[in-house]
Write a structure and sequence with these properties.
The protein is mostly helical. About 15% of the residues are buried. It contains four helices and no strands. Helices cover about 90% and strands about 0% of the residues.
Length: about 110
Amino acid sequence: MTNLLNYLHDVFVAQFDAWVVLGFIAQGFFTMRFVVQWIASERARKSVMPVAFWFFSIGGGALLLVYALYRRDPVFIAGQALGLLVYLRNVYFIVLNGRQVSSSEG
């Protein structure tokens, strides 16, 4: 039990700094993407992917990438960098399709 308490103290207290705060904020953004997707799906009574999902993905992914770069974690860096490409590409398609709809109406 003492080892567990020492571990938890080391992880959550001794290492606590501004970078950990940034990491928690980033994780909060990343978690919000699932919350907005869940709420939108519940309202529509079917699975939907709201635009806010992608913006929270970009915000959380970018902040988590900064955090991963600071921590020098190659697995975390690769995962967040590749994820950001997917999120940005989806927003590109949303913007592109929105412009196409607008230009075809006018």
